[in-house]
């Protein structure tokens, strides 16, 4: 098969949480670290790009750095507890949405090669092999490991090059967070908005004029025309 699909993760294959939910998680972790919860939640939001590109180090280093930025000096035990909370949260988030695994299995059964291209912090990369996704994807590109996050072209190209396919043969499917759709289009990837119930509710995709789906089950019919198989 000479065609592939590059999938976003959060808001596409697993539910996207809201800004309010993310802040609440940060406030709970702040209590463990002994820092001001409001300031810590704001710092976590502000550090999103640095966390997603791995610039803050591994999970314990990231937790300690963020706590210190808001005046904290957490003990090793407090950092360890916060890390366990972060991993537990991410583990709960990495559960496939309804119908997602069936849709992926159908695509693989039709011969599509599947790759993941996700913006994420270190927790996702660490836990990926525990998920039900791992056996279904040929490869996974994590921004925190790569050092580049969508819409940086290097994020998509890492998968395209590894698959050894031209961009026109690699569809990108995502919920539109972080400007990922225009970033994919700029590289010549056939691009589809996943406007499903899993999508991040805080993402505004009103200006997207390209193909869209409301369920991953719609992908086979849509992509059959959008990404011609060069082997046909």
Automatic annotation (TrEMBL):
GO molecular function, a single term: hydrolase activity
- What is the protein name stated in its UniProt record? Haloacid dehalogenase
Origin species, per record, is Actinocatenispora rupis
User: Could you name the domain of life of the organism this protein comes from?
Assistant: Bacteria
List the residue ranges forming a coiled coil, or say none. none
Indicate whether Nucleotide-binding appears among the record's keywords.
Answer: no
NCBIfam families, alphabetically? HAD-SF-IA-v1, HAD-SF-IA-v3
Which Pfam families does the entry mention?
A: Hydrolase (PF00702)
Q: Which Gene3D superfamilies match?
A: HAD superfamily/HAD-like
Q: What residue intervals traverse the membrane?
A: none
Q: Tell me the keywords, alphabetical order.
A: Hydrolase
